[in-house]
């Protein structure tokens, strides 16, 4: 998937970082400060009295303890059953150290099955090792893989304990040079039913799959005698790494749009000192498309997405400081999730880039999306039924119709 690779190795020089940032569409200002994980909405819901409310705890409880079945379509017992089962692999790992403050994959890295081997495999060719790691990542379940240079700007200023919600050291080892970024596709038919509990199975499934991929890939690298930290939402921001690894381009809905899956993808990462070749960022024309599109803004039920060009305005403490980008109002967004008792991705569902690029006509669409024809594509999108919410009952009917006897 990723071409145009160079043999640039870490540490990245200031000049090269500037070049790579420009190529990836990343802009920082003098106000830049690393993000503290304690400030993300999922953690603030536990400690920040300014925003926390009982619905937020009911949201978390609905995943493991008390699903909130109700009459609305897509929120029945089967819908919650599927969503929560989809999360089960991720839950298994995240819960095992939660009470000791180590919620793996969220507040701390996935813990190693075995430590770094005492003997180190020699890397004679970075190119060969890079090709091998990408193949093995796919063998372990990744859909797309890219490699970025390690960049301390994206490491959290500190992690947060899942027991006390106090700040703690991220604990990343010294000497990291590369980040292997892994993308997992979210199921399209489930995404079509957002907002619903059953749609949340698309997110849960991707989390469970990435847990299994990250834990195996990081263990493989440790078995070679090199350091590897298996990471999901913990330790560092993943979006800048996905951009730097050439996997896609940042969009107004705060997602990375990839040429393979559009925005319908979740990312995880393995941070390592294994000598690898870094991919180059690549732009797909998303920035110019989003400049003239408002579909996600219009569809957001709580108006949490920004209009206008990217900026470094910080609406609240859940936004990173000193990065010029489109940033949602995370307080409004998570408030809606809490009321729904499930995650929302309406802004993903309605995005014109949410297509199956396995079909040639969607690849033709992608080609035109880079051209001034983008305005017409948006008009056509608005006239068509694409992106409209599908009933979860249709999803269940479809399951029955394809179930082998
Ligand atoms: S996830 Fe839902 S609430 Fe949040 S920004 Fe997207 S559409 Fe709005
Ligand atoms: S819906 Fe439109 S504006 Fe929003 S992310 Fe997709 S292309 Fe960009």
From TrEMBL:
PROSITE patterns linked to this entry: 4FE4S_FER_1, 4FE4S_FER_2
Gene3D superfamilies, per the entry: 3.30.70.20
Domain 4Fe-4S ferredoxin-type residue range list: 279-310
PANTHER family: IRON-SULFUR CLUSTER-BINDING PROTEIN, IRON-SULFUR CLUSTER-BINDING PROTEIN-RELATED
Protein name from the UniProt record: 4Fe-4S ferredoxin-type domain-containing protein
Organism for this UniProt entry: marine metagenome
Source organism phylogeny: unclassified sequences, metagenomes, ecological metagenomes
